[in-house]
What we know:
Distance between the termini: 51 Å
Number of domains: 3
Radius of gyration: 29 Å
Membrane topology: Multi-pass membrane protein
Order of helices and strands: HHHHHHHHHHHHHHHHHHHHHHHHHHH
GO biological process, one term: regulation of intracellular pH
CATH topology of the largest domain: Na+/H+ antiporter like fold
GO molecular function: potassium:proton antiporter activity; sodium:proton antiporter activity
Number of strands: 0
Helix content: over 70%
Number of helices: 27
CATH class of the largest domain: Mainly Alpha
Low-confidence stretches: none
InterPro entries: Cation/H_exchanger_CPA1, Cation/H_exchanger_TM, NaH_exchanger
Largest sheet: none
Domain Cation/H+ exchanger transmembrane: 15-429
Shape: globular
Structural class: mainly alpha
Amino acid sequence: MGLTLESALALFVLLIVSTATFFLAKRTKLPYTVLLVAVGLILVPIAALEPFHFLETFTLTPALLFYLLLPTLIFESAYNMSIRKVYENKWSITILSVVSLLVSSLLISGTLYSIFTFLLGIEVPFLLWLLFGALISATDPVAVLALFKEYGAPRRLTLLFEGESLFNDGTAVAFFFVLLSVIALPVIDPSVIVGGVITFMIMVIGGIVFGIIMGGVFSKMIEKASTHEFVAISLMIVSAHLTFIFTDLISEYLGHHTDGLVKLSPIISTTLAAMVIGNYGRFKVSPKADEFIEKFWGQFAFLANSLVFILIGLLFTSISIPLEAMLAPIVIVVLVVAVSRAVSIYPIVTLLNWTKIEEKIPNSWQHLLAWGSLRGALAITMVLLIPDDLTFANWGYTFTPKEFILGLTIGCIYATLFIKATTIGLMMRKLKLDALTEIEVVEEALSEAIIHSEILRRLSTFKEKGYISEGAFNKMVDNHRRDLGRAQDNCRSLLKNNNNTEHLADKVLRMHALGIEKYFLKNLYTYGEISEKIFKRILSKLTLQMEQVEKGNFGVVHSNVTDYKDVFERLANFLRRIFFPKTATFTAIDKFRYYRAQTVIARKVLKELHHLQTNVTADLISSEAVERLVDTYTTFKEGSTAKMNEMAAAIPEEVEALNSSLVGRGLLKTEESIIKELYEKEMITPKLMAHLTERMEQTAQ
């Protein structure tokens, strides 16, 4: 499809319609993707009218889906996935995304072949059913994850859904392409099946390895370009599509020279590259640049999803088979797919729970995993990748195999979106998956108390500066004092009614303190006061500490403890020790900066704890719990200060140079801010601003 005036107009009109649909979804509380498909269906008769014929000129094509939209959706999801959490749940995600998918594919194909051949007398080749089973078993979590976010589903359940979807996408596409190549062969014998299994394994494993390599290469390029932020951001933006396209090109080359035996999965490689960049490469740029990247991918994915789902609605017109002829087969297929999904979840997850190799997946989660398996972009992509001229011996129907599979796929997508997606919220409430945990209930009450306390403090400031009248001030103060008292009473009641009050109080306070540590650690990194190496070391320690506190263990995690779950960081450190041994060592000045950061952070936590106890929790949380935590951080601060002073005495010249550098960087930021402020106040012209900025940069060098 070439881009014409009509298709360009159709593209932007569809985006405007999608935006309007988003606001309608917010108002009606219906899933956005469901409404998009419904709107697409409504547009079908509208597009048939002469003034709106242009809407039919922009359609989903294999190239548009496979090379532009799909990498966007994959990268956006994988970029924000924590490798630590994936590693924690590696067996659950692997089994759900590989074993369950293969079981579902085989069940769907075998059951449909039996029903259509022996009960209905409709001859459809088993390989075509197997092809359909592979593509329809790939799940699309977009609508489900949006509801999870709205209702506050457990974080691990969200991870299992997203992890399964990402990795079963790659598995499904690899299986799909192997089947396509097998179908194209004139004769199928045992050697072909063995070759197909080998190709499938190479696609999966090769995709993982190549994805990690591409993620590492792009991360290194981003690091080299980090001083030029726009270049670094551009590299992060193009990394998704370049990884996808490079993998596909290499796969074609290898397949051509090995008779199709060796291929790579572009979806799996893009997923792994995104995870490497998201967990490792993102620290090569400033936090502000990382925030921009995250927003960019979120916006890009929103546009991609909007186009895909509204065009899925419009795809209804492309079905050449009469609806009345497809209705019964679609109903049968939808039921078989739903039952096969359930069979691929319950027994397999039960067996996984029995092994106890990972944390148990509760029955309520299994119900949602079985019911919440929606279909979307990937299923349509795979259908469109089926060659138009694909046929089978004795295929005696007026429609092609591709048209038949397309009709069934669209029917399944509509069924999962209009039936399953609209009932997931109700199901979550019924299963009480939106309920807050014990500590979250206390944290909610404590957060409300902190909010109203801070508002009262700021109201006093506004009153002193004359921003607010006496009457309005008194009215607002009365309201927020009442709300503060209610929140404090609620928090007090929750702690009093708990059987283990002291333990819960310790847990809430320590989680709060660790959150403060993370906040100020990020600030130090943002302002360039610590290096990436130090930032990651402290962040790793805090992450491990938070996990221990969540489990009720309040012991101190030392900085030399290795975080075995951070797979990519361990791999990077291993390669660094081999190829760049000097950068892997922790120098004396690194140690000084490390202890300086720990001292600053401990001081900030103590200040926040004092404010919290004085203004918010004076009689909510026992003074013993607060004192225990204050003593811990006081000892921590004194120890870090002593070690910092010890390092300063050992390397005075380096410390003096570092302090001068930090002060100079701070002054440079101040100068930059003043120039920007002068320009915004129109006290200097754009030309003068450019001149002053250039002079400032030259001075900095």
